[in-house]
Amino acid sequence: MEHESRNIKHLVIAGGGVTGFSAYGVLRESNKAGFWHIENIESIYGTSIGAVLAIYMALKYSWEDLDDFILKRPWQHVFKIDIHGTFAAYENRGVYDKRIIEEFLLPPMLGKDFDATTTLLEFYEQTGIAVYINSVELHSYQSVVMSYKTHPEWTVIDAVYCSACLPILLSPLLKDGKCYIDGGAIVNYPLEFCIENGAEPDEIFGITLAKVDKSVNTITEESTLFDYISILMSKVYEHSCHDRSHDYKLKHEIALENTMISIYDMIKCMSSMEQRLLFITKGVDLWNRWYMPTNIQENLTIS
């Protein structure tokens, strides 16, 4: 498939919480296989954790450096939850705030001479990659796609936070009289934006979510408030992932396992290197299953 790899110019990465680690596994292995090359990438579209990964890709770190940061960093010191934080969430409209995204993005950004004040325009000028970040403005309930073209003076940190601030878990971002929440509430897989901006479908590599198993997505007498919220948001995001992009068919698209987990499980995963590695390995395995049969068939045809 080497001849096709040179044609990949755009990446589209869906949101999905801890499933983002699986998306990372797909991105890493597909790049190592020569399926896409960062020097050929013109734009990256991302929602929520997909927006975080978009920034990681645009920074052009080695996979070894990214592995060290994602796997070995002591994230348990970042994702702390206690009784004080639970009560504070009532007034703050969320358990965590923008500092979470700063913990995700600032260390790798600082390593490439960016900082917390870096704007989307400055980021594009230095990386040469247009990053499109999808959020939702709650008052109008409209999707807002942020980029160096539409929001040049917005900081990278603010834009990504707007896309990733999952209700209840993260406080919404209030700015200029508007309220921004997780982009997955309307469009979790921003493929439509990429195509509507003129990208050729055969030049797009998309990473989306498979439909969730309905049998495990139910409320029972044993369910907690966080379980209820998690299932509610999972339903919303599943609908937004499949409802608006079904008319577009990609040649290069992988659907990740859409594992429905609670907010507590999400925090637990972020605090466990073993759990993060497990999700990354799932992505690697999925990539190998998707890529290898086609690659083997092509080699047989050539021979």
Automatic annotation (TrEMBL):
Keyword vocabulary terms for this entry: Lipid metabolism
PNPLA domain ranges (all copies):
11-195
In Gene Ontology terms, what is a biological process of this protein?
A: lipid metabolic process
Q: Which residues form the signal peptide?
A: none
The family database entries (PANTHER family) matched by this protein are listed as: ANNEXIN, PNPLA DOMAIN-CONTAINING PROTEIN
Name of protein:
PNPLA domain-containing protein
Native species of this protein? Answer: viral metagenome
